[in-house]
Amino acid sequence: MAHDHNSKEKVVYVGDSRVKKYKKNNVPLDYSAYPGNSEAFIPNFLLKEWMVGSVFLVGFMILTMSHPSPLGYPADPTKTDFVPIPDWYFLFMYQLLKYPYTSDAYVVLGTLVLPGILFGALMLAPFLDTGKERRWYKRPIASSLMFLSLFATIFLTMVSWQGYQHELEELNIIPEHLERAEKIAAGLEEPGGKEAEPIAIVNKESEGYEIYQKASCVSCHAVDLNGVSSMPSLLGIGDKHSKEEITDIIYNGFGSGMTGQAQANLDAGLTEADLDTLAGWLAEQKAPAGEEAPEEATESH
Amino acid sequence: MLKSVYNWIDERLDITPMWRDVADHEVPEHVNPAHHFSAFVYCFGGLTFFITVIQILSGMFLTMYYVDDIVNAYKSVDYLQHQVAFGVIVRGMHHWGASLVIVMMFLHTLRVFFTGSYKAPREMNWVVGMSIFFVMLGLGFTGYLLPWDNKAYFATQVGIQIAASVPYLGQYIETFLQGGEIVGAQTLTRFFALHVFFLPGALLALLGGHFFMIRKQGISGPL
Ligand code: HEM
Question: What pTM was computed for the model?
Fold first, then answer.
C-alpha cells in the first residue's frame, strides 16, 4: 500500500493515511517523498483539473439553456384530480409503498423498516464491514448487498415512473408544466399565470362593424371577430396588416385557407366602397397600447 | 507585485502555514486521471463539490427575486423565468443542478464504497458523508415545494402524509414540517427557511468536516 511504512521506519502512519502515529514536527513532506508520480495539487493538478471543470460546465450550460425548467399552474389545494409525483430520486421510496406488504396495515414496513435497514446499513457500513480487504471482488457480501440494493432502487424507480406515465395516459392528463409550456409557445397564454385576455373590438359604432356583420367574413372569422372554431381571429389584426394589405386579402385571399372574397360579397349586395370601409375598419383593430398580442400569437395565425 | 503583496501580508500574519494546510497537498498517481484514465472515478467527489458551489451561487441569485408567501411565490418564480434577463438560466442552473448533484453524489458514494475507502481509518468520514447525503435529500425535498405550483404542492402533501404515517414520531414530524392544518402559508415559509438557511448551514458544516478529514488523512491508497 502506498503510505504503508513498517515500524522500523522513522515515520509511522495510521493505516495508509498521512496521519503520523507518533507526534513529530509538522513540516510537510516534499512530494518526492511520496511514491509514484505524485504531483502537487496547487498548481500542477489544479491547472489540469479546471479544464475538466470547464468541459463539465459547458455541457451543464447547454442542458440548462436547451431545457428551461418546468413550471405548471399555481398551487390550488382544492384540486382533486392532480396526480402527485415526487422528484425522481424519491421515486423508489414512493413506489415501495405501493406493494401489499408495505402499505395499509403494513405501511410501517415501507416507511420505516425497509428504508431504515437500507440507510442504517449504509450509514454503519464501516462498522459492519470491518475486514481489511478493500477490493470489491474480494468482499462478496458487502458488494453483492450493494449490487442488490442498486438493482432494487433502479427497478423501483423505473416501475414508479412507468406507472406514472401509465396513469397519466389512462386519465388522459398532460402534466401541467408541459401543458403550460405548450400553451405559452402557442401564444394561448401569457407567462404570468393568466389566460391571454382577448383583445377587444375597436370602434363598434362604426359603419365598418355593420358591414362586417353583413359580409361573408363572419362565416369563418365569426361575428365577434374571434374566429369560428379553428379559424384565425381578426382581433387586433390592425397590428399586423395595413388597410392596403387587408384590401388585398379581401380581393385575393390569404395563404391556403382563404380564397378571394370580394366577388361573393359584391354578389351579396355590398359595394366596393363598403369593402373599402370594411378594410379601413379592420385596420383600426389594434390591441391597446403596451398590450400587443405576444409575438407567437400573431405568428401562428 | 502580487508576490510583494503576499509577502507583506505573510510577514504580518504568517499565513503560509495556513494555506499550506488548506491547499498544498499531493495528488497521488493512482487518483490522477492523467496517469490512469480509470481514476476518473476519483473526480466524482470534486465534481459534486463543483455543482454544490453552482447550487449555492445560483440559489443566492434566486433569492433576489423569490418571495416566500403563497400569494407571490408562484408569481415571483414565473416572473424570474419569463421576464428577468437571464432568469431562465439562473433558475435552470439551480433546477438541473439539483438533480445532477444527486447523481454525482451517488456516483461518488459508489466509488467510495466499491474501493472500500470507508474502511479504517476513514469510518468517520463515511458517516459524515452519509449525513451529507441526507442533508442533500432534505434540500431536494424542501426545494421542490418552493415554486408553489400544483406539482410542488401535491408532492409535498403526499410526502408529509407519508412522514406522518410513521408511528409515534409521525405527528411531530408533520407539525414540524407543515406548521398548520394543511400544506399552506406556514409550510412554505418553513420549507423556505429550511432550504435556504438551516440545511445549507448543516451542509457547509458537514462539508467542512469532510474536507478536513480528507486533508488530514489523505486519499485512500491504491487497491
Ligand atoms: C456534497 C456532497 C459531497 C462532496 C462535495 C464530497 C466531496 C469529496 C471529495 C472532493 C473527496 C476526495 C476524493 C474524491 O473526490 O473522490 C471525498 C472523499 C470521500 N468522500 Fe465525499 N463528498 C460528498 C459526499 C459524500 C458522501 C454522500 C459519502 C458517503 C456516504 C462520502 C464519503 C467519502 C469518503 C469516505 C471519502 C474518502 C475517500 C478516500 O479517501 O478515498 N462523501 N469527498
Answer: 0.71
